[in-house]
Write a structure and sequence with these properties.
Helix content is 66%, strand content 0%. The chain contains three helices and no strands.
């Protein structure tokens, strides 16, 4: 989901912010042009974090949420 949110943020910043659109039919071509250009400039996603690091963070978050659900504070450390 984060990639979609990022793409929509870029769409807003780069194609829509300075535009003046009086109707949806005027807006659609700007969105379609941005989609075409961004597709032409697409590149593969490169992971920078290991799977082990992601699993470690997920476990930590689960532990913190479990403590929060009990109304207490997690141990410091």
């Amino acid at each position: 989901m984060n990639m979609v949110e990022g793409w929509l943020g870029h769409l807003q910043q780069r194609a829509l912010t300075r535009g003046s659109f009086r109707s949806v039919p005027e807006l659609v071509p700007a969105i379609e042009e941005y989609a075409r250009v961004s597709s032409d400039e697409a590149h593969p996603w490169v992971w920078t974090v290991s799977a082990e690091e992601i699993v470690r963070k997920v476990r930590k978050i689960r532990q913190l949420l479990a403590w929060e659900g009990r109304g207490g504070f997690p141990p410091v450390g």
